Amino acid sequence: MGLRMKTRIAVLADYASLSLEHKLNIMGIFTTINAAQIPVVHPQMKLVTQFELDASEAGQHQMRITLVDDDGHEQFTIAALVNIQHPHDGRPVLMNQIFDLASLSFPTFGNYEFRILLDDEIAAEVPLTVAHLHLPKA
Q: Where are the domains of the chain?
C-alpha cells in the first residue's frame, strides 16, 4: 500500500527559506540553465518541495533524490530519513523540504530531471534543461 501523499510544490529556485511561522518563501524559480560551454557547474540552487500527507502517514519515511540525464543515467543521489509529525487535529500534514544543491556539475547540454522518492515511490519529478547559449562573435 503506497502513500496517499499529494505533491503541492516541486521546483528549482535561486533561494528558498522557511519563516518562523513555517511559511515557505521561494525566489527565482527556474527550469533552464543557459551556458556557453560544458561542463556546466551551477554554483548554488535550491530544490524545494511541499508534500501533503494524510495524518495516518505520520512517522519516519525514507526520502531519496536522484538527478538523471536524458538517457536515464543517475548523475548523483542523496538520501535521508524524514520524520512526519503526527498532527493534533487529524488534518493533513504539510512537509516542506529545502535541499541546498551547491556546485552541481552537468557534463552535457540537454534535459535532466530531479526525481524525489518517498519510500521508493516517485513523489515528484522536476525537469531541468541545460541549454547551449550561443554568444555573439566579438
A: 6-132
